[in-house]
Design a protein that fits this description.
- The structure holds two protein chains of two kinds.
- Chain A is α+β, with helices and mostly antiparallel strands.
- Chain A has helices at residues 114-127, 129-135, 155-204, 211-224, 232-235, 238-259, 266-277, 284-292, 320-333, 341-348, 352-364, 383-389; strands at residues 5-8, 17-28, 31-32, 38-43, 46-51, 56-61, 65-71, 80-85, 104-109, 263-265, 301-305, 311-315, 368-373, 376-381.
- Chain A has four domains: 5-148, PH-domain like, CATH 2.30.29.30; 158-224; 236-305, Orthogonal Bundle (Arc Repressor Mutant, subunit A), CATH 1.10.10.10; 320-389, Winged helix-like DNA-binding domain superfamily/Winged helix DNA-binding domain (Arc Repressor Mutant, subunit A).
- Chain A contains twelve helices and 14 strands.
- The longest helix of chain A has 50 residues, at 155-204.
- The radius of gyration of chain A is 43 Å and the shape is elongated.
- By secondary structure, chain B is α+β, with helices and mostly antiparallel strands.
- A three-stranded antiparallel β-sheet of chain B has the order 1-5-4. Chain B has a three-stranded antiparallel β-sheet with strand order 6-8-7. A two-stranded antiparallel sheet of chain B has the order 2-3.
- Chain B folds into two domains: 8-98, "Winged helix" DNA-binding domain. Chain C. Domain 1 (Arc Repressor Mutant, subunit A, Orthogonal Bundle); 103-174, Arc Repressor Mutant, subunit A, CATH 1.10.10.
- The chains are: A alpha+beta, B alpha+beta.
- Chain A binds chain B through residues 338, 363-364, 366, 369-373, 378-380, 382-385, 387-388, and chain B through 8-9, 12-14, 16-17, 19-21, 23-24, 27-28, 31, 65-66.
Chain lengths: 390, 175
């Protein structure tokens, strides 16, 4: 309570009223005081409390407020704000109470408005406008002047300040980081726009790509670290590119395909070729296109599409009859129970999808017959033909 | 009466799945037709109801827990109809007469029997023919009434018999 001091009710230079509240009683610590039913004014520098019948006010400098807590009201008590205060400066004018062992006061809001007042007060505390005013302070408002150059490192206020400073710094860092990102995004936007216009021009063949556009595009690419972009110019027509790619894939995968029994799923081809290439990855579309032209360019492997749409790459010399014979032999081993695709996959060490294809192929050649039941699709050797002949 | 001897296909699981391969399916349907006809003959089945067929023992083998699905049964019955061993009672194809002998064959058999037992130019009731004691050893003993009439009508068309209607009872005169 000893932080309050007597002053007149007029505002000092640069002081702005933030909010007011009526019917406020002051507490010294947890004790009621006789200062009740007063008018409380919050400015950007002070709290001013004035009884309606009096001309002079009690002032409390906001710089002393370390922490504000809200105490909700109950049946018999009104809501209150608890203000924890720092020690007053020795130069402070006299107040109604000269000394108090309480370092906090309470503001009792008899007629409500506690929460909204709390918010405005909190904002005024964060803004710390009195600090700015002290720097350019005129001699007139020496009342609000704080000892210059002295920062408080101890007590609750010190800790609060430190935390606040830290938060501000983090905020600054984050906004700076996002600024960088924003720059990058702006750049990317430009690039996308240019590449779009170039591709549409190529497509339409209406207007020539201007030299200006190309150089700009190149400079963008360079700034991203791609110094030799793969373009139609460097690789000739798309057809030529795919033919070259087909040769590369065939060379790389000829042996693996043979080892895998002459057939390899396209998905595996894609994975293997990209693993072999390391960094210069191929798109799935390029791989398919390249595989499709393998037959034309007489490679040692070529693309085969099963009726079900499953695509594989197989050796040119693959002996279909032998594959069929193997499948039928496997089927005969499962004559009593029937064979699922999974069984064949285990038996011959094939991918499941491929095993399924083999069984379907055997079926279309009348070597296998299917059994659809609740246990799934199984295949049996075609006893309809073999037993009938016996 | 000896137990009906199921063919080997009956315990071959793929038999109960319609085969997509055309050649295989043809063989499969052959087997189905002969199984159904043989079974119908053994058990004297004259009519087949499509809705009830799924529960008929001929279309399911519980020992291998397989059953011919409803569309499969339809295909088999259609195939039988195509071969002249089945005749739908109406257009909705929900019931059908099953002929393990064709109508003409039945007519010939009955005519043969009439000749052998010298019933020419006499009148027999239909009951006599398919239920009577005198036909106990004949194949057409216990023949479905509707099929019997169809057989006799076939004879009538050939000029070998004449159907007569006595109100609640029907008779036939062999010529």
């Amino acid at each position: 309570m000893d932080r309050w001091y007597w002053c007149d009710s007029s505002l000092t230079f640069g002081e702005i009223v933030a909010t007011t509240a009526k019917s406020i009683r002051l507490y010294d610590g947890d004790k009621k005081t006789t200062f009740e039913d007063g008018h409380l004014t919050l400015t950007n520098q002070r709290l001013l409390w004035r009884h309606e019948s009096q001309s002079s006010s009690l002032g409390l400098h906001l710089g002393l407020v370390a922490l504000v807590e809200e105490e909700p009201g109950g049946f018999t008590s009104s809501p209150k704000l608890i203000l924890h205060l720092a020690m007053p400066s020795p130069s402070q004018p006299a107040g109604p109470v000269t000394s108090s062992h309480n370092s906090h006061i309470k503001l009792c809001f008899k007629h409500g408005g506690c929460s909204s007042f709390h918010q405005v007060l909190q904002k005024a505390l964060t803004d710390q406008e009195w600090e700015k005013l002290t720097v350019q302070a005129s001699p007139k408002n020496h009342q609000t002047k704080r000892p210059a150059g002295k920062t408080i490192h101890t007590g609750i206020l010190g800790i609060e300040r430190a935390i606040q400073a830290k938060q501000e710094k983090t905020n600054q860092n984050i906004s700076r980081a996002f600024e960088d990102l924003k720059n990058l995004m702006d750049l990317a936007k430009d690039m996308v726009a240019i590449s779009k216009s170039i591709s549409s021009k190529i497509k339409e063949r209406s207007g020539e790509v201007s030299a200006d556009d190309t150089t700009q595009f190149r400079s963008y690419l360079l700034s991203l670290g791609i110094d030799d972009p793969v373009t139609r110019e460097t690789h000739g027509s798309a057809m030529n590119y795919h033919h070259n790619l087909a040769r590369e894939i065939a060379n790389a995968l000829e042996t693996p395909v043979k080892e895998a029994g002459g057939v390899m799923l396209l998905s595996e081809v894609y994975c293997r070729i990209n693993r072999a290439r390391g960094l210069q990855l191929l798109s799935p579309e390029d791989v398919i296109n390249a595989c499709q032209v393998m037959k034309q360019s007489n490679q040692s492997i070529h693309l085969h599409t099963f009726e079900s749409g499953v695509q594989v790459v197989q050796s040119v010399g693959l002996d279909q009859e032998k594959v069929m014979k193997d499948t039928v032999e496997a089927l005969q081993r499962y004559e009593t129970t029937g064979m699922s695709a999974g069984d064949l996959a285990r038996e011959c060490g094939l991918p499941l999808l491929l095993a399924q294809e083999r069984l379907l192929q055997a079926e279309s050649c009348a070597e296998a017959v299917r059994d659809e039941s609740s246990q799934g699709l199984r295949f049996y050797p075609n006893l309809f033909f073999t037993r009938a002949a016996q | 009466m000896t137990e009906f001897e199921w063919p080997w296909q009956y315990s071959f699981p793929p038999f109960f799945t319609l085969q997509p391969n055309a050649d295989v399916r043809k063989t499969q349907l052959d087997a189905w037709c002969s199984l159904v006809l043989g079974w119908a003959r053994k058990n004297n089945v004259g009519q087949i109801d499509v809705t009830g067929a799924t529960s008929m023992v001929v279309f399911r083998n519980d020992s291998i827990s397989r059953a011919l699905p409803a569309d499969g049964i339809r295909v088999v019955l259609d195939e039988l109809a195509k071969r002249g061993n089945l005749e739908w009672t109406d257009k909705t194809k929900r019931r059908g007469y099953i002929f393990w002998r064709s109508v003409r064959e039945w007519g010939q058999q009955i005519y043969q029997w009439a000749q052998d037992t010298s019933r020419m130019n006499t009148v027999c009731t239909l009951f006599e023919i398919n239920q009577g004691d005198e036909t106990a050893g004949q194949e057409f003993h216990g023949l479905d009434g509707d099929i019997l009439i169809k057989a006799l009508r076939a004879l009538e068309v050939a000029g070998k018999a004449e159907l007569m209607d006595f109100g609640d009872n029907q008779g036939v005169k062999f010529l």
